Amino acid sequence: MTAQHDGFDGGEQNLRRHPAVLTSMKTQYYSAVSLDGYIADENHSLDWLFQFGGEDPTYDTFIKDVGAIAMGSSTYEWVLRNDLLADPDNPKPWPYSQPSWIFSSRTLRELPGADIRFVKGDVGPVHAEMRKVAGDKNIWVVGGGDLAGQFHDQGLLDEMILMMAPVILSKGAPLFTRKITKPPLRVVSVTPYPEGFTQIHLEVQR
Ligand SMILES: NC(=O)c1ccc[n+]([C@@H]2O[C@H](COP(=O)([O-])OP(=O)(O)OC[C@H]3O[C@@H](n4cnc5c(N)ncnc54)[C@H](OP(=O)(O)O)[C@@H]3O)[C@@H](O)[C@H]2O)c1
């Protein structure tokens, strides 16, 4: 066996001994999705999601390992409109302590006190900056589907973690706007939750 092989095997054993290493430093597209592949209905409504009540049972564990967040402008504006500024007299604070990169070609409303960086164009250099800031934590691509696709185009997307709700929307904002067939996504796990969701954890194979 060559020295190179020894090094490779040692690395694999090291990863097996320290499973945390396997789960860190990923770029993850984590989203709720309808059975037919939409993350919002045609009016950008998430009412279909909130009927299940409460919070996503996997969110607290997921967010602990996130060091940087990316989202498109529709998602950002949805959060402002429907949550943070829904009651203008009682604005809520930005919910993320992690630095967040918002993609838009427009000038969007800023939120005082929030670590938000407005960016546009090529996701490559933005991802490099996010990677530096996130350190040994993961990058969360919140959505939408085309933004996640832009990361995938450059080989930067490692995983999709989808909370599938048992509803059919028939149209709306798509989960993903790229074709992935060969190699297919690898199914890491499928976990049903009593709330009605099924989590599908997928890995992008290269
Ligand atoms: N179910 C869930 O868990 C979940 C998760 C996330 C989002 N959502 C919802 O799903 C919907 C997603 O909306 P969407 O499909 O329109 O996606 P989006 O990614 O939120 O917004 C798309 C917009 O972001 C801007 N953008 C994207 N990439 C850019 C780039 N590289 N440079 C500059 N600007 C860029 C463009 O708008 P401008 O340039 O005009 O600003 C683009 O039209 C929203 O309603 C959101 O609330 C649901």
* Class derived from helix and strand content: alpha/beta
CATH fold-level topology: Dihydrofolate Reductase, subunit A
Overall shape: globular
Q: Main sheet?
A: 8 strands, mixed
What features would you describe in this structure?
The chain has 206 residues and is α/β, with parallel strands linked by helices. It has a single domain, classed as Dihydrofolate Reductase, subunit A. It has 7 helices and 10 strands. The strands form 2 sheets. An 8-stranded mixed beta sheet has the order 5-4-3-6-1-7-10-9. A two-stranded antiparallel sheet has the order 2-8. The longest helix is centred in the first third of the chain and has 15 residues, at 3-17. The two termini are 26 Å apart. Residues 1-23 have low confidence and may be disordered. The structure holds NADP nicotinamide-adenine-dinucleotide phosphate. NADP nicotinamide-adenine-dinucleotide phosphate binds next to strand 1, strand 2, strand 3, helix 5 and strand 6.
Topology:
Blueprint: H1 3-17, H2 19-23, E1 27-34, E2 38-40, H3 47-50, H4 59-64, E3 66-72, H5 73-84, E4 100-103, E5 116-119, H6 123-134, E6 138-143, H7 145-153, E7 159-165, E8 173-174, E9 186-192, E10 198-203
Parallel strand pairs: 1-6, 1-7, 3-4, 3-6, 4-5
Antiparallel strand pairs: 2-8, 7-10, 9-10
Sum this structure up briefly.
This protein is α/β, with parallel strands linked by helices and 206 residues long. The protein has 7 helices and 10 strands. Helices cover 31% and strands 26% of the residues.
Give keywords.
single chain, 206 residues, alpha/beta, Dihydrofolate Reductase, subunit A, two-stranded antiparallel ribbon, disordered N terminus, binds NADP nicotinamide-adenine-dinucleotide phosphate
